[in-house]
């Protein structure tokens, strides 16, 4: 393999085939950093509208640093993996305070920021600042494993380090950012996980997996454990007088921390006494606690399913209408549509509320 020839072929293909993405129209390290954070475990098409809204609301790093976390999470709601947003927010605060609002052009300083790993550091340093660092994401791991016919598990740290070493040897010293993006684009458009389009690949003549008919079984990844399923039940309490819905804010740690949700309970580890049941019966103590004077009518929805990385929520939903005689205590709140739009509501519960409203139950 002639590394220089392969790099040239790849870069020429990228110049012709690259997608016009909003973060590719700038060299602003902050904007590129935001995009790379969003793109972790998120499809490009999904990330684009979130990126545009985020950059409109927080156009520079100081505006993000001075924002309230709830406002940041509200704009992130629906993207998932909310720890990314919290880490980006904390990092922006640090950069604003310690680096005068300028993203460090030093790899070690940038990599030390909250939420910045080797991939993000390599991507931002190379794309924004033109520094010769490799950016190794899932697409690049797959492309490199096929080009070099690497049979080791690409999720292992040792294998990733080996691939990073191979990538550094291919980097054009003065255009590492374009090369990194070309590798990622090749993996996204051509060298896909399933059914790679080898006939359209600009570097197929350098690919050992293609030469040996091995693109179907390379790369190798250890099988993931199946996520566990959890049966739960949510309640949509609707005020009779104004249609507001009862919501609550989760605690500061754990899954979906500080996100807003519909009240819900596990049906597998039953609480004593249960606040409500699938048939719509509500425990009087909970009813009084949240300020409900009496219930009028109710119904049930079909089950909603939501997948996290390591678990699946199978969510039964009860809808009840209520007459309220006082405000709900923290962490509960009666929320109207305008308020809900400004809160960081977890995507599952937004779907449920939207379904209730579409069925004219509100």
What does this protein look like?
This protein has a four-stranded mixed beta sheet with strand order 4-1-6-5. The mean pLDDT is 92. The protein folds into two domains: 3-211, Hypothetical protein, domain 2 (Endonuclease III, domain 1); 228-358, Nucleoside Triphosphate Pyrophosphohydrolase (Alpha-Beta Complex). By secondary structure, the chain is of the alpha+beta class. The longest helix is centred in the N-terminal third of the chain and has 16 residues, at 83-98. Helix 9 packs across helix 11 (176-189). It contains 15 helices and seven strands. The termini are far apart.
Domains, number: 2
CATH topology of the largest domain: Endonuclease III, domain 1
Fraction in helix: 40-55%
C-alpha-based Rg, rounded? 25 Å
Strand content: 15-25%
Keywords:
7 strands; three-stranded antiparallel beta sheet; Endonuclease III, domain 1; four-stranded mixed beta sheet; 362 residues; single chain; 15% strand; 2 domains; alpha+beta; Nucleoside Triphosphate Pyrophosphohydrolase
């Amino acid at each position: 393999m002639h590394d220089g020839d392969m790099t040239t072929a790849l870069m020429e293909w990228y110049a012709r085939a690259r997608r016009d993405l909003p973060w590719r129209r700038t060299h602003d390290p902050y904007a590129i950093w935001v995009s790379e954070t969003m793109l972790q475990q998120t499809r490009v098409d999904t990330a684009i509208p979130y990126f545009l809204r985020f950059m409109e609301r927080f156009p520079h790093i100081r505006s993000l640093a001075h924002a309230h976390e709830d406002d940041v999470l509200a704009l992130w709601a629906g993207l998932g993996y909310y720890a990314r947003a919290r880490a980006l927010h904390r990092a922006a605060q640090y950069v604003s305070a310690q680096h005068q609002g300028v993203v460090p052009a030093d790899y070690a300083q940038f990599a030390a920021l909250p939420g910045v790993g080797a991939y993000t550091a390599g991507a931002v340093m190379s794309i924004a600042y033109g520094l010769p660092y490799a950016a190794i994401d899932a697409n690049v791991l797959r492309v490199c494993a096929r080009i070099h016919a690497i049979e080791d598990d690409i999720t292992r740290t040792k294998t990733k380090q080996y691939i990073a070493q191979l990538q550094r040897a291919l980097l054009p010293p003065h255009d590492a950012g374009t090369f990194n993006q070309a590798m990622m684009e090749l993996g996204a458009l051509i060298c896909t996980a399933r059914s790679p389009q080898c006939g359209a690949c600009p570097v197929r003549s350098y690919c050992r997996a293609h030469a040996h008919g091995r693109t179907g079984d390379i790369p190798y990844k250890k099988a993931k454990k199946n996520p566990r399923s959890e049966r739960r039940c949510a309640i949509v309490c609707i005020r009779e007088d104004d249609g507001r819905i009862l919501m609550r804010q989760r605690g500061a740690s754990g899954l979906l921390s500080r996100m807003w949700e519909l009240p819900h309970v596990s049906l597998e580890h039953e609480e004593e006494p249960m606040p409500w049941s699938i048939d719509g019966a509500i425990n009087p103590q909970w009813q009084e606690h949240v300020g409900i004077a009496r219930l009028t009518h109710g119904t049930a929805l079909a089950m909603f399913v939501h997948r996290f990385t390591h678990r699946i929520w199978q969510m039964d939903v009860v809808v009840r209408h209520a007459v309220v005689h006082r405000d709900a205590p923290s962490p509960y709140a009666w929320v109207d549509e305008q308020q809900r739009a400004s809160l960081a509501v977890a995507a599952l519960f937004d779907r449920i509320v939207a379904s209730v409203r579409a069925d004219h139950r509100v």
